[in-house]
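User: Fold this; tokens only.

Assistant: Input:
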Amino acid sequence: MLQNSQILNNKKIGLIIDLTDKSKYYDHTFFTERNIIYQKIICDNEMIPKQQMLKIFISTVKKYLEQNNDGLIVCHCLYGYNITGFFIVYFMVKELGYNTLEAINLFNRARQPGIFKKIYYEALFKQFGQTSIPRKFKKPIIPIWGKIMLKQKNEQIMKKSNNVKESRLDNAINKKKNSNLIQYENGEGDEDKDENGGENGDENRDENRDENGGEDEGNKNKKQRRLYSLLETIGERVNSNTEEELKNIICKWFNYKEKNKFLGTIPVPLTKSNAKTLTEHQYYVTWNALGDRCMLLILNEKCYLIGKNFKFYKVSAKFPKINKTIMDGELVAEPIASSKSNNSVLIGKTSKKMKYIFLVFDALFYNGKPYFQKNLGERLGVVKHLINFQKNHLSKSNLQQYLNDPFQMKFKDIYELKHAKTILNQLQPNIAHPNNGLIFTPVNQPYIFHNSNSLLKWIPFKEQKILFLIKNFKNSNRKTAGLFVLNKTSDNDFSGNGDEGDDDDDDDDDDEDGDGGNDDEKNNVNVGGEKNKVGELIKVDVIHFSDLYQKIRYLLKIVECYFDFNTEKWKPKEIFLKKKCPDTLEKYEKLIKIMDKNFNKKQLLEYIQKIIIK
């Protein structure tokens, strides 16, 4: 039947996965003689597939997709619904990035009525971390033949149960005749134990073990995120009265009137439009650290960190004989290979030992004397003096205490402009904390509060990303798809409310056959789950994949992409399952404008080299 079907539909079958527990349904020689790969995975018709079975299924499919992109994959159990659906949905979630509800809904629509046995779809939800079946899930209607099959199965179970009870009763009567009461009770207990530990018991334990194993594995795949900011982790937020007093003191020092606005300097992006600024001033360069931007306040030998929201956090650092001092810098966290410290940053469900470092790159006040009007050289001299003073003081008292302190302060090294290439190629890859790009600071200018047109920041364009919906269009092929954005000028986040989308979400984007229009394809969609706000999906570009398997992984997903200047093509970076809509057309157009102005790494280093030669 399969062979005739593929001839009629002019489609070639390349792989057969047989999920039955018997050999009478498929003759593997029939397929191998026709150059069709045959894989047998023996599955009991009444049990949840075990992890080993699922691993074999995944590796078989992946290997086939990598080597043979043109042939169809046929997967079938006895009836082709519950067990078949379980394997396919598991693959979609595990390998293709679908959420569980979305994958089950897609399978149920494609192979109606779909997975209709509760034990299977319930196990799938549990496999991937959900304790209960989502309310949005529409239970499949059990077909008539399915009801008959379940009824017959229940009758068999009842008959078997009655036979067991009758047999147990006969055994109990015989034991009572031939033994004392205690032996009888023990014997009955043993039989109960055998019943729970027999065929059904083993099945239940295997099922639970698989589900737990799947749940743990699913958690490993979750994106690791910091649960708290570094400031909240290392510092203790001061009370509102103290915070108000500290704000008043700082505002008085700087004659600053905006008590709720961070006064730190903010760099502007370095582009081809403002690159001439690098030739107008002498510049030092350093790496761009990715941490919490903050300022350090030392007042009456107490130490505070000031966040960008102008909130104050008290930290444990000690600075004897230092008072009325403000330093600018970044708080970063670096992992410790082995440490007795109890301080850690929480990442996902794991806890890693970290050390917290305040990288100081500028000075505004030192011991009551203002330095923000001085040039960079004088300001950095003050920074080094403060750090050396602290180290010298601690080395005389308790150096080990300083080394074990959860909060440390270091000078952020800064270099002449000619060392930019060395920073990018040799220094940055070996820095323990997250970083990207470069910061260019003018040497002969004072510290500038808020936005500074002379303080420049360059970030590789690869790090400037945008969210697309990836889907087929009329002229797409096995290795290409369209990049779609939302034609709606709004600052909304367009994020979903949970992991599982509505059933209708899939219908908007379901265009796998490529019949969805032309290059100007537009689709109406609900924005951010709000029924009254409708936007248009517009194809703005095309993305190229290495093979069909990579394309399937990203198809019909909201994907964060970056533009690769080397290949001049968009590349996928990360799937966002919780997002319901891509970024707006407005954001995309802004990014395209920046692309024309932005330096790539090679262009930037060439431009700097010209400045140095002059």
